[in-house]
Amino acid sequence: MQAQETELMLKGYGLTTAELFYRMPDYRNVLNTFVWQDYDLAPDYPGLFRFIEFWQENIEGPLHSVRFTHRKLIAPAEWRNVVGEFRLH
Questions:
Q1: What does each C-alpha distance from 74 to 4, 17, 49, 71, 80 come to in angstroms?
Q2: What are the Cα distances from residue 4, in Å, to 9, 10, 38?
Q3: pLDDT for residue 73
Q4: Each residue's pLDDT tens digit in the chain (89 positions)?
Q5: Number of Cβ atoms within 10 Å of the Cβ of 80
Q6: In angstroms, rounded to a whole number, what is the distance separating the alpha carbons of residues 70 and 55?
Q7: If we measure between CA atoms, which residue out of 37, 35, 52, 51 comes closest to residue 5?
């Protein structure tokens, strides 16, 4: 069973988004893009590098470049356990 997204974020994972630019197999002058997004650990990014290795081994379109960004969605100071809630109107 895979861990839930909240569990991953509490373990230090953040949302990593990568934009891969690759050349079309039949038309080498044409660049195309592919967007990959998953929870990954900074600064090593094992999931992203595993995906790039998969791409290079199994996909015919050679990579031109990769741009990526990483954002921790929950920081230790931002998350807290709320026991109750009061509502006015």
A1: 14, 16, 23, 9, 10
A2: 9, 10, 12
A3: 75
A4: 467 888 888 888 999 999 999 999 899 899 999 999 999 999 999 999 999 999 999 999 999 999 999 988 766 566 667 777 666 66
A5: 7
A6: 20
A7: 37
* Pick from 3, 33, 4, 36: nearest CA to 18: 36
Q: Say whether 69 sits in a helix, a strand or coil.
A: strand
| Residues counted in the chain | 89
Q: What angle do CA 33, 39, 43 make, to 5 degrees?
A: 90
Burial (CB count <10 Å: 0-12, 13-18, 19+), residue 23: middle
pLDDT of residue 12: 86
Residue 18 contacts by C-beta under 8 Å, 6 or more apart in sequence?
A: 35, 36, 37, 48, 51, 66, 67, 68
